[in-house]
Amino acid sequence: MPDRRTAQEALERLIVDVPDWPEPGVTFKDITPVLADHHAFSAIITALAAAGKDDHGNVVVDKVVGMEARGFILAAPVALALGVGFVPIRKAGKLPRETHAVTYTLEYGEATLEVHRDGIAPGERVLMIDDVLATGGTVVATRQLIEACGGTATSCSVLLELGFLEPRAVTGDLPIASLLTV
């Protein structure tokens, strides 16, 4: 698929590794150069949105969620490309109304994510979008939030998968589309 190949090439060319950030031993994958390049950004949005369509190009989701914070940057334009709504998954204390919350383990700590209780209606099919799939904890927590609202997580689409951390060992049967695996 040309769009996917273009997206992969852009990621390989433009992602910058930042060693020892946010703490020693962690290599941060900086995607801001990808976002600053219009052609690269367009290609990745098209490629990420493919997970929300069937083999005939029909949209098969009702909502797109983006995980804080870089997932927001990607998920909102994916939702627009699919013609569906966007729902933010936020860190604890950032949403002003009643929420569902899940605490989980990161590759370098612990976090709590929240979603508005009415952000996803019962029965809605939801595509999850994030930048990096590392340990899989964020995906598992987000899926739990979607299900707490009564929705169904249909799949997850990410820019980059850190395969050496074996995230799919914890994400279960959820289909995951990764544009690039390292």
From TrEMBL:
Membrane-spanning intervals of the chain: 71-89
According to its UniProt record, the EC number is 2.4.2.7
Q: Which reaction does it catalyse?
A: AMP + diphosphate = 5-phospho-alpha-D-ribose 1-diphosphate + adenine
Please verify whether the record's keywords include Manganese.
no
Q: Which UniProt keywords apply?
A: Cytoplasm, Glycosyltransferase, Membrane, Purine salvage, Transferase, Transmembrane, Transmembrane helix
Q: Where is the signal peptide?
A: none
**Where does the Phosphoribosyltransferase domain start and stop, copy by copy?**
35-153
First-listed, main subcellular location of the protein, grouped into a coarse class:
cytoplasm
Gene Ontology molecular function terms on file: adenine phosphoribosyltransferase activity
Q: Where is the protein localized?
A: Cytoplasm
Keyword Hydrolase among record annotations: no
Looking up InterPro entries in the UniProt record yields: Ade_phspho_trans, PRTase-like, PRTase_dom, UPRTase/APRTase
Subunit composition and interactions: Homodimer.
Family membership: Belongs to the purine/pyrimidine phosphoribosyltransferase family.
User: What is the protein's known function?
Assistant: Catalyzes a salvage reaction resulting in the formation of AMP, that is energically less costly than de novo synthesis.
Q: What is this protein called?
A: Adenine phosphoribosyltransferase
- The protein's gene is named apt
